[in-house]
Amino acid sequence: MEGNEKRKDHREISYQVGWKKGKIQWNESATDALRAHQDNLEDGETERKRLQLLWFPAMKLPHVMILPLLYALPVISFGCTLLLIYGLRQH
């Protein structure tokens, strides 16, 4: 039971990537403080700003241009792909 009550404040993690080996010092109390700080940042204002940035309109076009652009973009993309393939075959 004493093992469950004990909590390590510092933990060492060893790793190996290819030929390189190393150790990382892990401080659990710092992790708790970071988590508490992140919880304080997650308020409604921050979340609203993130959503606005995510759904920011890329460009404002007249509605008349959107439908032709919708049909033209796949054709243009396919043409550019063929042009790139043709260029690679030449070398």
- What's the total number of strands? 2
Percent in strands: 15-25%
- Secondary structure tally, helices: 4
- Beginning-to-end CA distance, first to last residue: 71 Å
Pick out the low-confidence regions. Answer: none
- Major sheet details: 2 strands, antiparallel
SS-based structural class?
alpha+beta
Helices and strands, in order, run as HEEHHH
Which value, in Å, is the CA radius of gyration? 27 Å
Shape: flat
Helix content: 55-70%
Which strand order spans the largest sheet, edge to edge or round the barrel?
Answer: 1-2
Mean pLDDT: 77
Task: Describe the structure concisely.
With 91 residues, the protein is α+β, with helices and mostly antiparallel strands. It has four helices and two strands, in the order H-E-E-H-H-H.
Could you please describe the fold and organization of this structure?
This protein has 91 residues and is of the alpha+beta class. Helix content is 63%, strand content 18%. It contains 4 helices and 2 strands. It has helices at residues 2-5, 28-41, 44-54, 63-90; strands spanning 10-17, 20-27. A hairpin with a 2-residue loop joins β1 and β2 (20-27). It is flat. The N and C termini lie far apart (71 Å).
How are the SSEs ordered, and which strands pair?
Blueprint lengths: L1 H4 L4 E8 L2 E8 H14 L2 H11 L8 H28 L1
Antiparallel strand pairs: 1-2
